[in-house]
Amino acid sequence: MAAVEAQPQATTDIEVLPDAPASPLEQSPSAEPTTEATSKKSDIPRGKTVSGRPWKAVQNKRHSSMRPKSVRPGWAKQVEERKQKQIVKAIQDEIIEAKKAEKEKKKQEAKEREERKKANEARGEVVQKVSAAKLKRMTKKQMRQLKKV
């Protein structure tokens, strides 16, 4: 038998990372979707957009759910803010009511003043009796200037 020389085996420098999944089935759901999944989403025929702007991106999530959780105020803080807003609104309503009442009061006083003025003028006027014969002799212009009592 011929002596077989031991040939050195070819080694590959491929390192297996311990964190990387061995097969696509072992991938976690948080991993990026494969190109097949993304291509399926883009292959779905879409109708014309309502706005008529086909270049606009489709919104997948509500804006409120996209907001980071840390930005949201706590429940106690929200309740406190609501109470503060109610207090401010109550004060504003009181101020508005006071202004309306003041305006109504001034309007009523002006009306009473006008009535008193008319009554005083009527009391101060000199009244004359005009006979029927004199009325017949008067012109239309003179009759218009007369006041009936």
TrEMBL record:
<feature type="compositionally biased region" description="Basic residues">
    <location>
        <begin position="59"/>
        <end position="70"/>
    </location>
</feature>
<keyword id="KW-0175">Coiled coil</keyword>
<dbReference type="InterPro" id="IPR005579">
    <property type="entry name" value="Cgr1-like"/>
</dbReference>
<feature type="compositionally biased region" description="Basic and acidic residues">
    <location>
        <begin position="101"/>
        <end position="126"/>
    </location>
</feature>
<comment type="similarity">
    <text>Belongs to the CGR1 family.</text>
</comment>
<comment type="function">
    <text>Involved in nucleolar integrity and required for processing of the pre-rRNA for the 60S ribosome subunit.</text>
</comment>
<keyword id="KW-0690">Ribosome biogenesis</keyword>
<keyword id="KW-0597">Phosphoprotein</keyword>
<feature type="compositionally biased region" description="Polar residues">
    <location>
        <begin position="25"/>
        <end position="37"/>
    </location>
</feature>
<keyword id="KW-0539">Nucleus</keyword>
<dbReference type="GO" id="GO:0006364">
    <property type="term" value="P:rRNA processing"/>
</dbReference>
<protein>
    <recommendedName>
        <fullName>rRNA-processing protein</fullName>
    </recommendedName>
</protein>
<dbReference type="Pfam" id="PF03879">
    <property type="entry name" value="Cgr1"/>
</dbReference>
<feature type="compositionally biased region" description="Basic residues">
    <location>
        <begin position="134"/>
        <end position="149"/>
    </location>
</feature>
<dbReference type="InterPro" id="IPR026570">
    <property type="entry name" value="CCDC86"/>
</dbReference>
<dbReference type="GO" id="GO:0005694">
    <property type="term" value="C:chromosome"/>
</dbReference>
<dbReference type="GO" id="GO:0005730">
    <property type="term" value="C:nucleolus"/>
</dbReference>
<comment type="function">
    <text>Required for proper chromosome segregation during mitosis and error-free mitotic progression.</text>
</comment>
<feature type="region of interest" description="Disordered">
    <location>
        <begin position="101"/>
        <end position="149"/>
    </location>
</feature>
<keyword id="KW-0164">Citrullination</keyword>
<keyword id="KW-0698">rRNA processing</keyword>
<feature type="region of interest" description="Disordered">
    <location>
        <begin position="1"/>
        <end position="79"/>
    </location>
</feature>
<keyword id="KW-0158">Chromosome</keyword>
